[in-house]
Every structure is written in structure tokens, then in C-alpha cells.
Fold each of these.
Amino acid sequence: MDFALTEEQTLIFDMAKSFGEENIAPNSEKWEADGTIPRELWPQLAELGFGGVYVSEEYGGSGLSRLDATLIFEALAMADPSVGSFLSIHNMCGGMIDKFGKEEDKQKWLPALCSMEKVFSYCLTEPGSGSDAAALKTRAEKTADGYVMNGNKAFISGGNYSDVYVTMCRTGDDGPKGISTVVVENGTPGLSFGANERKMGWKAQPTSQVQFDDCLVPHENLLGEEGKGFTYAMAGLDGGRLNISAGALGGAQKALDLTLQYMGERKAFGKTIDQFQALQFRLAEYETKLQAARTFLRQAAWKLDNGAHDASKFCAMAKLMVTDVSFEVANGCLQLHGGYGYLSDYGIEKIVRDLRVHQILEGTNEIMRLIVGRQLLAERDRG
């Protein structure tokens, strides 16, 4: 097995890392205080090809692999996990439209998505259906004039900020087969938003409820086929889980880099604290865990790119392992900073706050365990 990145992949990673260092990291503290990300950032990222990472080139995308995407989001998260993760959600929408949309869907939505002239949000979670996504209640009734939508979505990244909302809603009976995907543009009558949520982390990223009150959406805004929305949403989550893992990994790597630098400067008992063997052991443990997580994440991405039969299981395992390890490492790095780690000036506490949610979204890590366990039993029973 060859674990080396290609020359092109190394360039992709370096380009994303450099962009983050120059354009995101210096503004990270201000954007967190403001609770929003300037709109002008997105076209700059789109110029690098990051607006439609795995959208086909004919629609303006970059046509890159899921493995390539993990490199981009790991690198951007080194500058700010909340910004990189928001871009990842936009790209999850692009991947869904490119893979499952009709030709007219792709022509209508993808060029503006790839140029980031329009920012896209993914709307699945509801106040009463998070982990149990198939129990969603938002309904779209088909009428002669279009789909009339009613319901609420919760914890939506980009709520009251994005231009387009890719929304999973019920067009049929209860259960996953009654769910479809409808694309709703901002400004549609009946579409409104709750107040921005006050959050532990990801504070630069606006998050709110998205509300539909007799919201009339044209028939042609149905993505793909009726009744296939849950399948589309779950397929989107496979890639989303890889990207959220990559974002956690990038944040943890940045925390470790900052800690290595700090420990070479901070003195205690007459020497720099990097000279204490017990603390060197901690660094060695964190480095080993991050490298193992990185290798496993890239293997899962490779499986998804190659259509392996167990790709979904590996995406779930990667999400579980990488986000847990990344939070553990970031939290440990805060501890190695002592009291200074608790101060915002050193940049560690923000990473810890940001990475905590990576263990929850795109399916909680408890649900990842459920997915893996069920697939193991299914594999056993197939013999």
C-alpha cells in the first residue's frame, strides 16, 4: 500500500493551508466576536476551486476526490475549524446535487454553488428529530402551484445567512421512504429564521432554526426523485462525516503545533518544560494518535472514492475515532499550556470549544457506534 500523497494532493493541501494562514487565521478572533463570516471570503475560496470540490468540472466544479477534500478541510481547519466546517457543509450540498440531481437541477444550482455566488445550507435536523432523522416532520404538500412546505429545522449552519437551503422534508408516509429533498431559495415567501443560537464553539458560523410556514416552492425545485430524499441525505453524510473528521484533525494538529512551540519557551524549575520526560511522553502520545487518525481517515476516504461495499461503515468509524481523538488531543494541549491555555490569547481554548461539536454533528458518535455495530452483525449474518 502506498500512503504517500501525490504531488497534486500535496499542492492542494499546501494551497489550502497557505490561504488559511493568510486570510482566515488573522481574522478568526474578530469573526468569532462578530458571530459571522464576511461574505467576500467565499468567492476567494471558490477561485481556488473549493466551492464545488467534488462537483463535475462541466458545472464549474473541481471534480476532486473525497480524499482530496479531506486534505482541504484539514488544512483550512488549522486556521479556524468553524470556517472550514461551514465550507464543508456547502460542499456536501454540492455533492448531493451533482450525484443525485436531474440534469436541469445541476444546470440550475451548481454553477452559482461552485463560484460561491450563492452559499448553500443543508437542512435535515429538526427540534424533535436529530439522531432519529427518519422521523422528521417538515412536510411538503404537492399542489398544482408547487410544494407547500410547513415545519422547522434546527441547528442549521448558515440559517439566515445562506442563499439556498437543501431541505429534507416529508412528501409521503412516515419513515425514510416518505422523505424527499427540496431546494428552497432565501427570499421565498413563508421562509423565515429563528434568532442566531448562542453556542459553545463555532461562534463565527451563524446557526439558527429555519422555518417554513406555507412556504410555496416550485415543482422544479424537487431534487432528483420523490421519496429518495433520505437516501440522498445519508449519502451526503458519508462525505460530510469525513470532512468533519478532517476539520477536527486540522484543529487538533494546530493545537499540537502551538503546544510544541509553547513548551520550548515556557520555563519551570530552571528549564524549558519540553525537557521534562513525562511531558515528552504526552507529546509522543498525541502525535501517535493524530497520525493514526489521519491514516484511518484517508483509508475511509479512499474506500468512499472507490465505492467499497463497507465505505459507509468506515466513514462512521473514521468519524467516531478521529473526532474523539482530536478533541482529546486539543484538550490535552490546553492542559500542557497550564493556566495560559485557558486564556483566549493563546488560541488553544477556542480550538477546544470548536472541536467539541465535531463529536455531535453529522451523526453523534453514539450513532456512529450503532451504525458500525449493526453492520458488523449484518456481515456476520450474511456469512
Note: The first strand starts at residue 120 and ends at 123.
Amino acid sequence: MTPADLSLTVQHAVRRAVDDGALRVDVPPRVKVEKARPGGVGEYASSVALTLARPAGRAALDVASLLKERLEGADGILSVDITGPGFLNFTLRPGGGAGLVAAVRAAGLSYGHGDGLAGEAVRFEGVREERASVVVECLVELVRAQGGDAGVAGGGERVHVHPGTYDGEALGSDAARWRLLRAAPHDRPLDGAPLLVRHERNGLFRVQYAHSRARRLLVNGRQLDVLPSYETEVEDPLAGLLRDHPSVLLAAARHRAPDRVARHLEAVADALLGFQHTVLPLGDEKPSAAHRSRLALAEAAGTVLAGGLSVLGISAPDRI
């Protein structure tokens, strides 16, 4: 279950509570679901009960209890807990990889794009400083990818960054953009020199290399007559990182933090590079459903890496 799926599931629970008369509120067009914060319960959380409490004329804990009754046992949800003044916390069932892979395949490079900022108009102030200009350009793309109306205009929202030069000619556009976007806007930009070295300490190299490995695995799979097809569950941290991708993109847009995307891509790349050795048959090993499923997950990871790099304005070469 992806965060978008969970959001729809919670929205449907609200609608059922309204339809059967337990709640008298307007069903929200969207329900915000986020990663559970440190100290929370489960994997995801929603404050929808607190949002609905006042219009419903009910205590938030009462609203949360009504929704919990309608969410327990839902497909993909293992348990629902109520914490604090009325937060709903969700623990998801393990598995569900087939739905994840299908969602990535269907969306392609747009996987993780959504409507979390639909109806919001965001205007950023035009700037001349090179780093700020790169950050603003990326933020416009992030907001638009979440359904918002974004652009640049005089008197718009000011993006504050630590000073830093673009160095496009010296580094090349990919390394130059990664240098300025990988660090949080208020932090000092990365040192450019290490980004020119093909080494595991170079985050950009790891991300682009991991994408190229995913593409190469597909080529090698065809040579071994192994095609990607998710047929059996694959338990690997890589799957969880792919599920988190939509929420990372939305958070990056909301908090004006493209560095969150870059850090997440590094995590996906590291997981894929560790996972790659299990994907295809080795030696006399015969191809199996497990190999086809692992290849499908690796293909999905490559798609997520390419899509994330695209949002940052960075290329995803098939071969390095």
C-alpha cells in the first residue's frame, strides 16, 4: 500500500462514517497522510480526526475512534492506533509488492506525482543569485508535480540560500546542480571537486550508477530469458523506500526542500546496489519466479531514480 492508497482508504472511511450518519461533516477532497514521526506508532499517521472534530462538533478522540472502527481490517492495513489528542497511526501489512510495482510501471517517471498541493498557487520571487535560481527552478517543478500552480513573479515567496556559485562549466550541469541541491538551501553547498570523481563517496555517482545498473539488469535478464514480472513477494528494504517516494516528493514541495529528494535517491541507490546481486540466476541456478519478481522490483527502483533525478533537472544515463 502506497501513501496515496492509504490516503484514499482513510478518505473512504470518512465517507462511510458520513453516509451512515456517524459524522456530519463534508468529506474532505484529500486526506493528508505522512510518515509517523519519531516516538509515534506504526509507519504512517494522519491528523484528519483533529481537522474534522470542530465541524463535526465532536471531540477529536471520538472522531478518531469512529474512523478507526472503519479502517481496521482494510486491505493493506495491519493495525490502527490512536495517539495524542486524536492522531491516527497506521501499521501496514508486509508485502503488497505487486501493487507497488504496478503503480510504478503505470506512472513511469511520474510515479510520486500527485495532487497534494492542488488548489495552491505558489509564486517565488525571481532572483539573480545562481544557487537561489537553481533552487527556485527545482521548487517550481516540485510544486507543479504535486498539483500546485507554481511560477516566478515579483513580490513572490523569497527562497533563502547559503551563497554558492553554480560552476556549470567546471563541473558539468549534472554535478553543478547536485552540488547546489543536495545540501539544504540554508547550508553551505557541497564541495564541487569530489563530484567529479567516480567513487562511492560521490552521492551523485552512486545514484546515476544505480540507475544504470537497473537498466543493465534488464538487458542481462533478457539474455537469460528472465523478464520482470512480480509473481512472489520480495522482502527487501528497497520496496519500503520505493513506497516512500511519493511522500518524499510531497514533503520536499511543501517544505521547499529539494535536498530531501536527493537524500532519498541516495538511499534508494544504496539499497538497489546492495540488492542487485540477488536479482538474476548465478551459475547453474535456474530462473524462477523469485528472479522475475526481483527484476521487476529492480526495474521499479530504476524508474524511481530516473524520475527523481528528472525532478532535480539531472540526467539518468543508461550506461556509466
Note: DSSP finds eleven helices and six strands in the chain.
Amino acid sequence: MTHRPPRTPLRAIAALALLPLLTLTACGSGDTGSAAVGAQGSPAPTDDPVASVREVDSVAALLPADVRKAGTLKIGSSIGFPPGAYYPNGADKAPAGQDIDLADAVAKVLGLELERQDASFETILPALGSGKYDVGTGNFGVTTERLKTIDFVTYINDGQGFAVKDDNDSVKKVTDLKQLCGLTIGAGAGTTFEATLTAQKDVCAKAGKKPYDVKVYSENAATLTALQQGRIDVIMSTINGLRYQAAQPASHTRFLGEYHRLDVGFAFKKGSPLTKAFRAAVDHLIEDGTYRRILAKWGTTASAIDASRINPPEHA
């Protein structure tokens, strides 16, 4: 079940501007203006590794009794880009993507139905605390700061990367933020990318260089539009998302490489009684091969993990 906010003029403009292009998301940053996503000409793969998944009684038994009795969970999903989560056939049709398949597979192992609501990233984490959602997805990277208020159950290892227009020959690779000095960087609102760029903004001054500028966008379509129009020089976003985008000729972007890896997980309010069951469900999917088939479907096997973890420390 998906509820979408009213479309604003900005969303409409971004959607029209991006009909032939791709949008992306951050770790995580969702795009609720998904008309552009649906029009990007990226059909979902047709194989369905989730179809054969069945309930596993020993795993479902880890759920609280009231949850098993209700049989449903409310999930807030950030729907923004392939391969994570997007609308291949328009916003009035079902979403697809790696995060969608993994959440659906976990729910089947647990014998639950998901009540999915499309929401922007910056609204999902606070809503977990208020009880609006039981769980959230949206390429949520595990960070020290988020662990103070959120519980995570990991399911992939993704992280931070950079991309530029494909005709930009001045930026070859970014392994140090000082390589961004004097440039304008675009990032999603409320993301690990915005936090990283803001926290280290003094690196250029310390190096005697002109500071980089950070422009924050609440919608992913707007970030890519800004890059194509030359209003920003570089995008900072997810490794998998930027790789996927750069592989699509219509995006006219070039992936600059990985900057910082992060574990990515299902998000819960602190102290949630659901985490053990979710971890066991992910581990079951890893053990029976479904997990690998889902990642192979979406081209993200390089992000595979060997076992799920609850609240691992942020990668150094």
C-alpha cells in the first residue's frame, strides 16, 4: 500500500526535465517525485527469486507474539532509483528494486505482509520513533550518529561515491576531499553525504585552498538536473546507484569510484523487538541462496555480505 504526497510544481518541473535521464538516491535519500524515475526507460528484470520464498517457523518464532498475530508490518520505503528501489512502470504501479525484493523476501520468511508507504528519507527515521512505521528502507547507511537513535539490521555493504558529467575531464577520481576544493558538490538532504561534506568542509582552508561549496537537494531529480545544467560539478551519492546510473548512456555521467564503504540496513526505532527476527531472516536468505539471486538480479553482488549484523560499528 503506497501513499504519495501531492506533486509540487518543483516535482513536475524536475520530472519534465529528466524524462530521458536517470535519478539517484543517497545513503539514503529518497525521491518522492518519481515521475522522472518511471520514465527513465529502465525496465525491471523479469526473474523473481522472491517467488519461491516460504515462511520459516523457527525464524518467525523470534517475532513478538502480537506482531505474529497481526500478521502485518508498516514499512516506510524511500523509492528513488534503480537498482535500490524505483518505479519502472510509473508511480501508480508497484515499485521494484533490490531493497523491495529483500524486504519482501524477509517478510515472507517471517510470515508477514508488508504495508508499504513511499516516503522521503528525511521523514522515515523520525517516523520510526513515533511509531508511524515499524521498519524503514532506503539505503540507510550505518553511522555512529544514527546508531544513537536507530537500530539497524544489515543486508548489504554499499557506501559513498562520486560522479561527474561524462564530458568532465578535470576530475578523474576522488580519494580525498581536498580534491574537491573549489568545486560545487551536490548531495541529498539529510544524508551521510551531506553530513560528511559539511563535517569536513574546513579541509580546503587547512590546505590553503579555496573551499568546496555544498548544494543540498531534497529530490534526486533536482540533483541530476543541476549536474547536467552545470550548476554543480560533482554528485556525491551511493556507490551502487552511481555505478548503475553511469552504465546508462542517457545519464551522461561518469562514476569516479568508491570513497567510503558503509553497511546498509533495515532501520528500526531504538530498542525495537523486531531486530533479531529480521537478522535471522536475512541470514536464512543468505544460507539458502535467495539473497545472492536477488543481488545478481540487480547487479549488486559486489555489495554482498556473509551474515547480517545488528548495530555494527561504522566502518573506519
Note: The beta strands are 72-77, 113-118, 135-137, 150-165, 184-188, 213-217, 234-238, 253-269.
Amino acid sequence: MATIHDVARLAKVSIATVSRVMSGADPVNPKTQQRVMEAMEQLNYTPNGLARNLRSLKTNVIIALVPDIKNPFFSEVIRGIEDGAREAGFHVLVGSTDGDREKAKAYMALLEESRADGLILTTAQMDQAFIEDFAARRPMVLACEYIAGSEIPCVSIDNESAARKITKHLLALGHTRIAHIMGPSNVVLSQARLNGYKQALREHGMPEDELLVQEGDFSIESGYAVAKKLLSIERLPTAIFAASDVMAIGALRAIHDHGLRVPDDIAVAGFDDINMASYVSPALTTIHQPRYEIGQRSVQMLVKLMKAEELGQAQVVLEDTMIIRESSGKGHEEKG
């Protein structure tokens, strides 16, 4: 017996497109619709009326996708999502994509098949056109990240401003060679933090040195490996700003293994303020993100979307705080 997957494969469209043709609820390109109808006829496919009715029911399940479940940054975000969902009467299915776009799309297909009611995406590591199309058809909120120029609802901090602030802190301490360990170049917030770093250098009349900007992947291993690379160049950096605390902690170990001291020889700063940041030695200067609130607010927005209620503010930017600790010198907290 032919299935909807068979129809989609023969018509060379997505399962979602086949569903839209069958329901008639959303407009479909006439040529595409004709192709789907011909595939259904060729396969003698008859939609199951009972299954259609079952799929129209609410599941009270939302999906939260994270790029790496091992990354401690996401634990507090997920806690906020779970608490917010529970208050609204929803269960949460957490999926780790490991940076694999196909894994993410497989989870997102659960919404297309109506096995879940909404989606919270904590990283937009997919084609923008795909995400925009999905968000136009299904309830979805971006948490921690955003897409420039997009109207997709999101909750985040101003990553560019925060990165500029912490780089300016290092500059104010007299550092003239500040290296940056950025996150994956295909991640929006990686680019935003890189931009903030570069803006701070320009504002202080400091030249950009391409050797001082190296790409990691937000893992502790990449922080260690990239820091080792930075420590091998002829003119060592006097400070390292890593785009995540996890990478900064890897850098701390690399500097220690190189026989240097933090912050006496090289200052280090991170980003996120994960719980571990205040317990490593030396304690890490960083940007505090309100991770729990990001998770909670993203669920509140998603519930409104699922109920077709007015959002009011679709792009929510929460306040970050710069936490200055021993890795760059003790000081104060600066809100932003």
C-alpha cells in the first residue's frame, strides 16, 4: 500500500507539500499541485480519513532542538523551556542535532506529521529559506539566536553589543593583541560576536590581525586546539576572547599546558556564564546570558503562536551582564 512518503518521493516534493495539497488549507503552486495529484493517481494513493482526523488533534507536545546536548549552556535553557511548558500544559521533546541539518529536519518533520504542536529552535544552522518557509506554516520560535531581517519570533540577547563590551573591557586593561576564538562561521551568533569584537577594535583604532581570529565549534576540545594554535604564532596574543565559556575553558587548559599563567601572561574571557565559569581556576570573565528566562519566554511566545494569539513583540532582546572575574582581573558587573 502506497504511503504519503511514496507520493512525496515520486512527486519530488516534501511530505509537507503533499499534506498541503491534500488538505487544501494552504496555497500550493499549481504545477506542484498537479505533480502531486498525478503521483497520487499513479500510486493509487488514498488518504486515510481516520488518520487525517487523528493528525488534526493537538498532541500537547513541543519540540526543543539543541545543537549539542553535551554543551552545558543549553541545560538552563531547556530547564526554562520545560518549566514554561509545564505551566502551559505541554510536554517537551528535546532533540540534539549534533550540528546535522538532516537530523534537525527529521525532528521538524514530526510537526509536519502533527505528532507535535510547536518547535523551539536554539540554533539556525539550516538554510534561511527553509526555516522561513517552515515558520510560515508551523508554530516556531528561535531561542538564543535570530535571523537578521527575519520576522520569525525569537528571544535572545544582543550578541554583537555584548561581544563589543567584553572586548572593550580587555582593551581598557591595556591589551593590544586580543585573539578571538569564534564559533562555527555558519552560525548567526558566531558572526554577531565576531562583529562585536571587530567593532571594539576599530573604535580603539586597533588593526585587525587575521591570524588572531580562529574558528572553533563551541566545544572544549576546539577551544583547547585553537588556543594551542594561537600560542604557536610568533607574536603571542596578550588576551583571548572565546565566543563561549566552554571554548574559553579549553583555552585556559592550553595556556596552562604551554607553561603560561592566566591572567599574568594572557588574559582570557568567555561568553555565556555557564555554572562552571565561576568554579574553574582562575574564575572566568564572561557575558552572562539569562538562559532560563530565554527558555521560559520562548515557550510563552510559542504557546501564543499555537493559539493564534497576538504576540505583541515578536523579537525579544533580553539584557546581558558582563561578569568580571580573575581570568582578566577582578572588578564589577556591567549590564547591557
Note: Residues 49-56 have pLDDT under 50 and may be disordered.
